[in-house]
User: What shape does this take?
Amino acid sequence: METPKSRPDPINLLLESNKGRLPEQAPIRFGRMLQSPFAFFRGSACLMAADPSHTRNSGLKVQACGDAHLWNFGGFATPDRNVIFDTRSRAEVLRQLWEIMLGHASRACFFNSFQSTFSIASWGASLMKRLTSIRSYQTSSAFMNA
Assistant: This one.
């Protein structure tokens, strides 16, 4: 896939994201982002927000967790003894396109795999299993009575 010519320069986006912050804090922020791919991902929300303009758009909107990292998701018991998949944190929830949230969560899983014992192949298999499960749950939920 070729990078679109209209895509903003990622370095400029990172530098612009420091506007309004204390200037002496910028080197500390960038230093923390250098610690791991996952730390970079968490500190570069402006880059993640710039990419979706080139993504497919189904028009489906979801209430999405703002940073969508692994630890913000989990399985939870419902009063009717079912288990649902949901976010742990509601602090950064906003309406987003389904594709954006899914891509963001997938990248979070990918970057987190660098800090774990999972291989890229096992990460990919695990992600596909989870995505299939989410799709099946959403399909069955679409026909539930309110």
Summary: The chain is about 45% helix and 15% strand. The chain has a mean pLDDT of 76. Residues 133 and 139 are 10 Å apart (CA to CA).
